[in-house]
Prior knowledge:
Blueprint: H1 2-7, H2 12-24, E1 28-32, E2 40-44, H3 46-68, H4 75-85
Antiparallel strand pairs: 1-2
Amino acid sequence: MGPVANLLAMDRTTLTAALKPLQKRGLLSIETDPRDKRGKRLRLTEQGMAVLMSALPVWTQTHEEVEAQIASGDADRLRRDLADIR
Length: 86
């Protein structure tokens, strides 16, 4: 779960709380890491993958709309700058 928390810039406790409703809805499973029993692995279920695939076009369109409003036109630069100050 650590890499997902880092990717989302969340602490693990917050991520765990956010994932519980998704797990209850059957969209993902949380499994013990077979290599390190202290760790957890997240896995999208078939239903979770279907929801993700239906959301992807909306996510893509929204990012295109936001990026079009960046004055410099350099969205990648903005991402790098934000990552640097994170």
